[in-house]
Amino acid sequence: MIKQSLFADQEREAKLNELGDTLRILEQHVDFTALAAAVDAAAPRPSRERGGRPPFPTELMVRVLLIQQLFNLSDEQMEFQLLDRLSFQRFVGLRQSSQIPDRTTIWTFKERLIQAGASESIFDAVNRQLSIQGYMARGGQMIDASIVQTPRQSINKEEKAIVSENAMPADWKPAKRRQKDIDARWTKKHGKSYFGYKLSANADKRYKLIRRIKISTASEHDTLHFEAVIDPGNTSRDIYADKGYVDGKREARLKGQGWRMHIQRKGSKDKPLSDAQERRNKRIAKPRARVEHVFAGLAQLGGKVLRSIGLARATLHLNWKAATYNLQRFSYLKEAGIVAF
């Protein structure tokens, strides 16, 4: 016989705490009030001059979007899970509320950030909080890039030619336009074709926290954004990258600025690597490989695929994804007792 209890809710919450609720751990270490204030400063709350129902508090919406990125949920699934899931309700502060942000509310909040040009606000706010807590970029920096796929587009040759000019065919109806991503591009990697965008990232070697990112179309080469993601705030002048970033002129210029370049070399059929170059590549491989752990973490959060359409939304989602990774990593460092120094 199933046991009935008047205190079932409290007993379940206690059991969640015993099992180690991820969201509860985030709650203990993250200042969500400061994150919400940064978002409001970058994208002010809409005016209520015309009346209507007041929007949900920004801190609540920040928590909702972080959950969404942490568990890789669509807007529709986010609405459903907020209605259904105890840990989500508790984290956002809606345990006793009959109202929850629906899919339209979530979409509207994101549009508010995009329209205000505040897509990067959460990532910047998280990194400021990391620095305040003492987790500054240390030990050198690792740079790499990853393709982020989006749904493939079915268009004919004529339409493709127009889209390549950053335009939209005139005969497309509004409903069709909303479903076509004219910003995403094709690229090839290891002989396989991919459609979407590219995330270039810089992570510090000591803490494996993401310090800078750049979002572009997938067709743009990794090397174009190398200098854009260099972090001048790292306490070390060492920069690690794989052989895809080889550029003699750039390396010479950066060395002249005081950077120590650790970029693996690549050989060719006519000019194979020397023994000294092979040894150098092996020395670089171990510290450089730590950036792969960062991209693996992003992949676990669903950071290799996007549901959104367009570069503006890709920029928003990937900034929130990187911010979520950093908060999760920060909480792990605190729980593991890895102190900042």
Automatic annotation (TrEMBL):
Keywords: DNA recombination, DNA-binding, Transposition
Region feature (Disordered): 265-284
One annotated GO molecular function: transposase activity
Every Transposase InsH N-terminal domain range: 13-112
UniProt xrefs under InterPro entries: Transpos_IS5, Transposase_11, Transposase_InsH_N
Domain of life: Bacteria
GO biological process, one term: DNA transposition
Domain Transposase IS4-like span(s) in chain numbering: 170-327
Pfam families linked to this entry: DDE_Tnp_1, DUF772
Presence of keyword DNA-binding: yes
Ranges of compositional bias, category Basic and acidic residues: 267-279
Role of this protein: Involved in the transposition of the insertion sequence IS5.
Family: Belongs to the transposase 11 family.
Designated name of the protein: IS5 family transposase
Lineage: Bacteria, Pseudomonadati, Pseudomonadota, Betaproteobacteria, Burkholderiales
